[in-house]
Amino acid sequence: MPDVAISAPNEAAADAGEQIALAGGNAIDAALAATLVTMVNEVGIVSLSSGGFITVQPSDGSAPHTVDGWMDMPGRGRTLGSGTWDIDTDYGGGVTVTIGAGSVACHGSVAAFGEAHKRWGSVPWRELVAPAIEVARGGFQLGSASRFYLDYVHEDIFGWDEQSHAAVHAPDGTISTGRVELPDLVGSLELIAAEGPSALHTGDLARLISNDVIERGGILGPADLAAYRPVVRPSLMSTVGEWKLGTNPPPSVGGVCVAALLRLLEG
Is 89 strand, coil or helix? Predict the structure, then answer.
């Protein structure tokens, strides 16, 4: 097996990447498996219902590409709803956040995972999701990044809903230091493993998500989820010293900022 370096925010996620690599997976497989675990145990930082980007350097030496799985504006055929309110937090030096069902957009991360896996992955999709199912089924302790974030927002963002409050709080109302158990998350992951990323867009799971959001005053409808497609673009290339780096291209500004910062560091 070739050497594999894995960077992850917690041990369980790194273990998942190693497990897939030892099973014959390539770097893409290992990264996806590790990230799926992170979507389980870094509550508040990232989740299955999120947006994200994946930049890949294909092993054949061809130009890198970025899979855009960012959030999409919902509300096809609907009037704008309500169900939102703003909260002020001290996180990050002071951040105002809009929360509530009306703030829920159409997720894209897992769809982007599926596109990256279809193009560059090597092991079956079900195997990539298996470590995340295992972590969710056994219960997990909140990751350090998650706990840091929740220190600021556990009541304002996770306290108003009975189920989310119970998920991250101990009986005395403090942030949980024990194992977090989310049985419904296990079931969701099992559907995603069996049906693929489409489970979050056209299956029973997608219907349950949409119904819940709409009942609470949001506008994420079944048509929004079914219409979602990740977009694959050539990566933004930048040269720093002897390195050629591929980063996220426009319309996102993230890759542009990373490239500019690296050039500043180079002088």
Answer: strand
